[in-house]
């Protein structure tokens, strides 16, 4: 992939950042285009022509093909790399966590963060299930990471990339990570492995 691909994303979105991180980690040339999601940037005719679903991130490949959905994009970018296990079962374990991230983690931790940080809603006005189920997700991760260095085993995979994005921002959604020592150690390992450094705060 010699010609650069174009990533359309919001710099405050973990889903968008994971695409940026994988491209940079693997040395894939990429151009980043900011999309102001709260400001309606995904609803313009120009953006909807690229992704009728009106969501970021998307990538436009050098040949003009468009790919959406963050986890699908990073699987495409990382194909053949060490971020995707070669053996069938470890690869399936990686995908298991990636599917879980979009179904049981992001809808609670990321959504609560968005409502508190971007929409400036008061915690007492939020659906209590966001806090309850987000805490359930963190407890499951903590138990898993107490037994292995990374989510799908002893090597970093896309599962870790997918899940570190919003986990390291979880405090902005009202989730205190102080009691999750295994998660905090894992965040550091993944940040070091990707070369992204510690989280410096919201965009």
The main sheet comes to: 4 strands, mixed
| Number of DSSP-assigned strands | 4
Query: From the coordinates shown, what is the CATH architecture of the largest domain?
Result: Up-down Bundle
Overall average pLDDT: 96
Number of domains: 2
Strands ordered across the widest β-sheet = 2-1-3-4
Q: Might you state the CATH topology name of the largest domain?
A: Glutathione S-transferase Yfyf (Class Pi), Chain A, domain 2
**Topology as a string of helices (H) and strands (E):** EHEHEEHHHHH
Beta-strand residue percentage: 5-15%
Rg of Cα set: 17 Å
Separation of termini? 29 Å
Query: Looking at the structure, what is the overall shape?
Result: globular
Helical amount: 40-55%
Structural class: alpha+beta
Number of helical segments with 4 or more residues: 7
CATH class of the largest domain: Mainly Alpha
| Regions with little confidence, pLDDT below 50 for 5+ residues | none
Description of the structure:
It is a single chain. 49% of the residues lie in helices and 8% in strands. The protein is an alpha+beta fold. It has two domains: 5-78, 3-Layer(aba) Sandwich (Glutaredoxin); 88-194, Glutathione S-transferase Yfyf (Class Pi), Chain A, domain 2, CATH 1.20.1050. Helix 4 (88-118) packs antiparallel against helix 5 (128-145). It is globular, with a radius of gyration of 17 Å. It starts with a strand and ends in a 9-residue tail after the last helix. The model has no long low-confidence stretch (mean pLDDT 96). Its EC number is 2.5.1.18.
